[in-house]
Amino acid sequence: MCGIVGYLGQKESLPILVNGLRRLEYRGYDSAGVAILDKGIIKKVKSVGKIDNLAEKLSALNGCASGGKDNKMSGTAGIAHTRWATHGGVTEENAHPHTDCSGKIVLAHNGIIENYRELKIELGETHKYTSQTDSEVLAHLIEHYYKGDLRQAVQSALRRVRGTYGLVVMHADHPDMIIAARLGSPLVVGVGDGEFFIGSDATPMLAYTKKVVFLEDGEIAEITLAGMQTFNLRNQNVIKKVEEIDWDEAQAELQGFPHFMLKEIFDQPVVFKDAVRGRVDQEEGTAHLGGLNMSEAQMREINRVILIACGTASYAAMVGKYAFERLAGIPTEVDVGSEFRYRDPIVDNHTLVFAISQSGETADTLAAVREAKRKGAFVRGIVNVVGSTIARETDGGTYIHAGPELAVASSKAYINMVAVLLLYALQFGRSRRLSLATGQRILTALGEISEKMKIILAQSEKIKKLAEKYKNYQNFLYLGRGINYPVALEGSHKLKEISYIHSEAYPAGEMKHGVNALLAPDFPVIGIMTKNQLYEKMSSSIEEVRARKSPVILIVSEGDIKAQELADEIIYVPETMELLEPLLNIIPLQLFAYHTAVLLGRDVDRPRNLAKSVTVE
Ligand code: F6R
What predicted TM-score, i.e. pTM, was given to this entire model? Predict the structure, then answer.
């Protein structure tokens, strides 16, 4: 969590930094701050709350509405930070950037300094602190080691640190220099023409450059106007590759939508195609995901698949389980990262582990990757953010190509995770027992999904009316069976995250074992009852719900007139093959959660207490 931005070049840095913070606001939005190096003087401005508050403060300052000429923020080198509080409350003092006693060293930090108390004691009482954060101690530690060489001082300080960091540091006496370092918290350096951009991810620099360098753990970059040099903590030079990213600036814009979440829901028909394009072979009825990095023989030896993920990604993984078992006949488990890492999982060199993550930085998923690798499994990533830690630490895998997802609540990444998992299941299936005809049928059906998604999206206004009618209920129950059970879980997850309404999801067959006790007229039930092998079972469960007078909202297949007898409200979705239903059935639930949250006045893109990229345990 927390977002870092930096700029060094010829341009006025402030707008670049503030716009960069806006791009990273999904990483934290408790408070924000910026520091600029202006003619040998470091100037800082911080503010509690959203980036808008900081921007207002800065424009007041620069417009001379408050302060005089000396307070104006101007300069071609600067760093900025948006915070998701861990140590120390949400106050201006605790917002980054932080300075040392002299005010000459300034830094922004993402991560946790675990031994900050010990370091503070060791530094002694001569150091004066202005915040309760663990991060500020780093500024004083660098001050302690500083003897004229900023990089060496940062290196010496970081050798003393236990914990994680993405870090940017400036010094008033080194006007054309930013030091950047990473261990456990991502940092990307954008390489422009005589200028450098730094970000927790690549989105702040998309408007300026597509050339990036991903720092690895334990690396420290000395960035000056003359160029960038990278070292490890032992001060050995590390040669870095400049990579090209294919994300577009436009993809990170609202493009007329009121919120990123709505835009990203409407992006789905397009980005879904990006996940599939070039990866399927209609003639052979199979998929080719090159990143798997396994020979046919190795693939045949796999006797178990484990899908590891958190949150929404774990619900996509549950869909993947059905696909792997049905198409490839491989026993498949789903584990959330935070559980896998601590339960001494049984994994061996016949196990294929997929780590599924939008951000590629989720600490629990990453720890699970490391544990599975230690135990000798094949570990592959299914990741959205290019160059992210999970993408680099796995021995192969596939990017889901959803483009930047900026709303905290995931939508299009879920769709593309499901798509890639289906392709993997198909590829394994075809190398084992799956018939050519079935493989081809799946691919034909996949080819129709994008247009079918559009048919559902066209019902957004209708779903908004539904949200208007139901927005004041305090509880919701989502029901699904088979492949639609994970869809119910994800639909319920969306509603909780952004509307703050309590909701639960159950496999409908479980109702009679306890959950029926909740049913009452003030407890609406949302059922996913599309035409598949469990349709009759699902419809019996809904009969039971009706008998107990809960209002019923049903997602059903187009043309299912009979379902109207069971429901107070109906949303129709186009029919598809059962395995592909999650790609469609989630969309009305995303829209229902979105419209409900908007109508309740929630901050849809930045729900309370959450951050998009959870880089702490
Ligand atoms: C849901 C959501 C979270 C994430 C979870 C995993 O809308 O945003 O539940 O799905 O934190 O994040 P990634 O996929 O980045 O590993």
Answer: 0.87
